[in-house]
Amino acid sequence: MLPEPTDEQDVSPVSGSIRRVLVVDDSRLQRRILVASLKKWGFEVVEAESGEQAMEMCQQELPDLILSDWMMPGMTGIEFCRAFRESSGDGYSYFILLTSKSEKNEVAEGLDAGADDFLTKPVSSDELRARISAGERILRMQRELFEKNRIVSETLDELQSVYDAIDKDLMQARKIQESLVPELSKSFGSSSVSLLLKPCGHIGGDLVGMFSPGVNRLGFYSIDVSGHGITSAMMTARLGGYLSSTYFDQNVGMEKKFNRFYALRPPEEVASLLNARLIADTGIEEYFTMAYCIADLRTGLVKMVQAGHPHPLLLRKDGSMEFIGQGGVPVGLVPDIGYSQEEFQMELGDRLLLYSDGFTEAHLEDGSMLDSEGLIELVKKCKPGQSGQEFLDDLYWNLTQVMGKDSGLEDDISATLFEFQGP
Description:
The protein has helices spanning 7-10, 28-40, 51-60, 77-87, 104-113, 125-178, 229-242, 267-280, 357-360, 371-381, 388-402; strands spanning 20-24, 44-48, 65-69, 94-99, 117-120, 185-188, 191-198, 206-214, 217-225, 254-257, 261-264, 288-296, 301-307, 313-315, 321-323, 341-345, 351-355, 413-419. It is of the alpha+beta class. Residues 1-15 have low confidence and may be disordered.
């Protein structure tokens, strides 16, 4: 039996995590002794004479601490503990079993049922106080952890809402960016230009396009803005206006002649104009690489400026391939720099491939990069006789097959294919 509490035990009631205590015992005398002690220590105490009655009381209000006898008629303390744990949900109560059992297998059975601690009858007052204090520390930590988890969960929900809003905005931004490339393939007489644009995220920093101010005159380009994401995408939107296929008066690649018609500016002049505009804009740190060409569809003469962009690949009708260009400095990186253009002749059936470094710098399964020779191998794998959009789609498919299975797109991938078939 638990001895009556002394005056010294009355003066410092347990406070903190444990306020409400449920005492479960079929012995009225045992309950009376335990309840008297607990009330002296400052607890709110409720009683139950059976496990079934205790379960009903717990369903109405969860106690902080449960002191339950092990051996009771009907539902035993072990059965009550197990049923209580299964029904308590997120709430947690510290559960102490009162027992005369001390065998290890019996203690293991109680722990397995969900008990936190054991007290052997007859219960010592000092030991009971010590076990309650230990339970309080555990409950306090458990509730602090629960509160922190709640805050984390709420924060994650808020972050998810913010992410969903940003994701929605990015989806809309992608639609806007896609509008910069309204046509992926277009014929100009017998010749044609096809475009490929695969951003590594919702939006990207690559831009491809084409425009023609009149019959047999054609301009086309491939641009790669430094960096990724929103800032790069905003720059591509700006460049899309500078090289508009719809509003010729805004297109720096064109100039009006005699107030009657538009003519194509020389490529080196276009690069210089774009460079001057970017340098003049304070606060803009982005730059871009570019391969920009103009073609005379009557003769097959192509004039090109290469500003830090990968070397274009010339695909001859006879199956031979060669990289062309001298490199050059990216646009918007150095002020007042001059750009030079080069000319080359294309024959009927020749094709010119402009592409971003998303191709050549793609990582393969062994960790190496595709590089220029790897690009030639991808072209060779394309099905014979393909042209236009089919060729670009097959080229991209071949790239995905040699990339690391878990790498995904690490950079935006884009390409422009010009196929010369005469006027």
